[in-house]
Amino acid sequence: MNKKIAVYPGTFDPITYGHMDIIKRAAKLFYSVIVAVGEDPQKAPVFTLSERFDMIKNVIESERFENVSVDLFRGLLVHYLDKVGSIIIIRGLRAVTDFEHEFQMALANRKLNSIAETVFLLPGEQFVYLSSSMVKTIALNNGDVSPFVPPFVEKFLYSKLRRS
User: Fold this and answer.
1) Which of 5, 110, 117, 119 is 20–30 Å from 22 (CA)?
2) Catalytic amino acids?
3) Which tens digits make up the pLDDT trace of 120-161?
4) Is 155 within the bounds of a domain?
5) Is 134 helix (H, G, I), strand (E, B) or coil?
6) What is the number of domains present in the chain?
7) Which long-range contacts (CB under 8 A, 24 or more apart) does 73-76 make?
8) Which CATH number do you get for residue 92?
């Protein structure tokens, strides 16, 4: 298993500047970071898996991250870690309220794969309040999401909501 490859999993529905901040921080710490776009059966995403993949790929290319790639995964994260040869899971913590859920997930992942380690990263303070859910709520109510997501994502979000 490679300790230099980190996996940043999520639904990213849509990717926000907060997610991008975590990606930038992880990219400084690890040789390679894989943004793993997954499905969560408990969530009803606005975007399809392939749409989320395309958005993130566009953002990563526009930011010119040299050591960051995007991939899709289904099923258990620990199985995906095995597939890519990693033991490192990156998770962002915005507030104390995130900690309990993330702590439970980290312990469950460790139980399923005893060598898996979760690294918690804090976003910049300007992103602590930011979530994909909040962005979708603002967009659904005709608000301005430009402070929260890259321009490409903003256009894609409004386009998708108009079609729905």
Assistant:
1) 110
2) 19, 43, 94, 132
3) 999 999 999 899 999 999 998 989 999 999 999 999 898 888
4) no
5) helix
6) 1
7) 73/9, 73/36, 73/37, 73/38, 74/38, 74/39, 76/112
8) 3.40.50.620
